[in-house]
Amino acid sequence: xxxxxxxxxxxxxxxxxxxxxxxxxxxxxxxxxxxxxxxxxxxxxxxxxxxxxxxxxxxxxxxxxxxxxxxxxxxxxxxxxxxxxxxxxxxxxxxxxxxxxxxxxxxxxxxxxxxxxxxxxxxxxxxxxxxxxxxxxxxxxxxxxxxxxxxxxxxxxxxxxx
Length: 162
Hints:
The protein folds into two domains: about 1-45; about 50-140 and about 145-160, Winged helix-like DNA-binding domain superfamily/Winged helix DNA-binding domain (Arc Repressor Mutant, subunit A). The chain has seven helices and three strands; from the N terminus they run H-H-H-E-H-H-E-E-H-H. The protein has helices at about 5-15, 25-45, 55-65, 75-80, 85-95, 120-140, 145-160, and strands at about 70, 100-105, 110-115. It has a three-stranded antiparallel sheet with strand order 1-3-2.
């Protein structure tokens, strides 16, 4: 059986507090450690493409929207879960980098749309490919059935949070 540092942590707690159910520690300590490693891998993958995580989040929302790769600022807010002021700042910075452009909304004279540029599409596609390669590395030790089972279990765990 493969052992890790969490096994040692749980054994130490069991010795000191054997009256407690330590099952959550076995699960969430591993998730927490994995999340830190995933965050580092994500930053590294994006740094290779000269993209910040927040930039990727906005660019990816536009890319997932499909051609012509545009969304209203309000929709971008919902997709990225940031405030209006934060989104304005982010779009301004992406416009200055030539990764997105602002266009008038033909359905609303007062509104604007944020559209991915050709360069922005190239950047987000490259960053996404680098991210997937890094994440594939994390899953390489699992069989396909185990990956599916893990995805299902994590979905079940996250479902109550909407």
